[in-house]
Protein 1
Amino acid sequence: MEKIKMTTPLVEMDGDEMTRILWKMIKDELILPFVDLKTEYYDLGLPYRDKTSDQVTIDSANATKRLGVAVKCATITPNVQRMSEYNLHQMWKSPNGTIRAMLDGTVFRTPITIPSIHPAVKFWKKPITIARHAYGDVYRDVEIQTTEPGVAKLVFEGVSGERIEEVIHEFAGPGVIEGMHNTDASIRSFAHACFKYALDLKQNLWFATKDTISKKYDGRFKAIFEEVFQEYKDAFDAAGIEYFYTLIDDAVARVMRSEGGFIWACKNYDGDVMSDMVSTAFGSLAMMTSVLVSPDGKYEYEAAHGTVTRHYYKYLKGEETSTNPMATIFAWSGAFRKRGELDNLPELVNYANQLEQACFDTLNEGLETKDLVNLSEGITPKGLTSLEFLKEIRKRLEIRLGA
Ligand code: NAP
Ligand code: MG
């Protein structure tokens, strides 16, 4: 078979530990035999980040702004222990944090679902995607703990000289006070990213806050979403999808009773809490994909899990591991599909779809990595090593592509 052609390169961000090993295996088994791969390669593995004083991370984010579509391997966020393990010059910041800040992006997380893994919520038939606003609120707060009676006030001093002052509480004894903020600009970016992604997926968008209680703060989120939606209304009508706003407690109840198959936009804290609940209820972190979407339509695809350190140490001892490559494969297929759509390359889009279907064929025959074996129902699963699993997917992909 002739290899599938690409025109614009993908931004390829390599990473660390077990996922770096999987990265190469996936390329060797499932990509290079079929695609005339074009990438701009950035090594975000910790040794090279350290060598370049993290410049490589910044370069890779700039490349994503320029080329539009990136695929990223999981990377180590250094802590004290990593400082000595890798003999680092500095405790470099999280690459994901750096890239997210540079792209001003929103992270969308979607579980990969298969018939043999039943969600803990029996009503859920289709995946639920969580879109988390990744700026502000309690994550950028200031807090005070007081020890005596007194008065707490909220004060704003405008550059115009305007002064707004509100009494928060007159304390009769010790207590706690919290000040938090968000910006219209950040909320607006979040709204654009959500509406664009809903159109991409042709799925309804839900958004919820507590604007009945927090009339100005949450009220502002509601109002900005409503205002931004006016720009997308016609496109939503044409795609046959809806924007649905409700209160957060009502949303939680409806999500539990829903069939799934929609995008749930969450404020920062709600997204933090709900994404862990939704991903666990769908089955496994190893089956969760993640994509960062910027308000001007740049995409960075990755797995939601980390570098799977425990498996890597086994691998270093020469043991075969059974690390699940699904989320990393789907990061690649997501990036190929998006690149194919943008460059009008139907063969590349088809390859992405067939690659995902070959993964499903393999899993549906009960051939899976060991993390899924205990979760599977209604089939007799066989636990494979990562490489055995990839080779089974390759066989099925060859048949699907007529290679
Ligand atoms: P992790 O790599 O996600 O792994 C935690 C555990 O979850 C693993 O030990 C394994 O459980 C299971 N697991 C996760 N992915 C799996 C897969 N693909 N296949 C099979 N099992 C899987 O999280 P971590 O150990 O907390 O973090 C390790 C490193 O990753 C850290 O340095 C952290 O900074 C980094 N990290 C990076 C990202 C990112 O780049 N997006 C995200 C999170 C963490 P068992 O050991 O029980 O098999
Ligand atoms: Mg969390």
Protein 2
Amino acid sequence: MTKVGKAMTDVELVLDAKADLGEGAIWHARRELLYWVDINAGFLHVFEPKSGKDDAYRIGEDVGTVVPRISSSERPYESVMLALRRGFAVFRFDVAKAYVVADPERDIPANRFNDGKCDPAGRFWAGTMPEGPGGVPDGGRLYCLYPDLHVEVKETGIRCSNGIAWSLDQRTMYYIDTPSMEIWAYNYDLETGALWDRRVAVHVPKNEGYPDGMTIDREGMLWVAHWDGWQVVRWNPRTGRKISSVKVPAARVTSCAFGGKNLDELYITTARTGVKAEALRTQPHAGGIFRVLPGVSGLEAFEFAG
Ligand code: ZN
């Protein structure tokens, strides 16, 4: 086990973004960039730690998450995949435009897409959540967009679809439906994308905050952002135990991703949505992007293969 030293507590504000609902942190190793989104504000962000530059692209609707997409000799432009209110989309940087490729919930206007991630086979998984009038409380679903652009429903009865990660042996998928206060594990088939045998890997005690975004480190441990928990927690999915925690100077911690040249930096998004003006005085950098050296490294993010 890697020893976690003093660096653990030294959380650094790297971008005072004041995002309403910063989310979806993901490091694109090929470009050495951090992608993230401001969901309610409807922006895709591209942050370059080297220069401190952050480019914001207005999408014009909720942006649940962003994932990298493989480069192709047939495409002379860079692009990423987004999960929007209207479904799965390609975003092209050359024209700064999103193109919807699949909208599995066209008939459920009360739902919007939320968090998501690509699996080791390059499929894009993202789930939905009800939001606003007419929404069915457990009417969210988990979807998977295959590289050939067909979509499959992978889970139903979801309240607030959030973090997803795959085990190092690629035989287990971890998934969070936030209000459950649990991290679920499924058997997972890399070949087909099939899921079965759901069980609870971690029960999250209420005082830790709500489990939100998630990533996995090189030791197979889960790093989970805790909404209203002021922290990112490292959980052992095999024992269900909390190993350690990174304190963040914002209550609403939403997602985290390993980044940097050696994937040994942890980038953390936060939100200020719903935090009263009074409370914001004690967390002036809520909505910012933070970074910490957690003492362990992560894996390169999988890219969408379509
Ligand atoms: Zn989230």
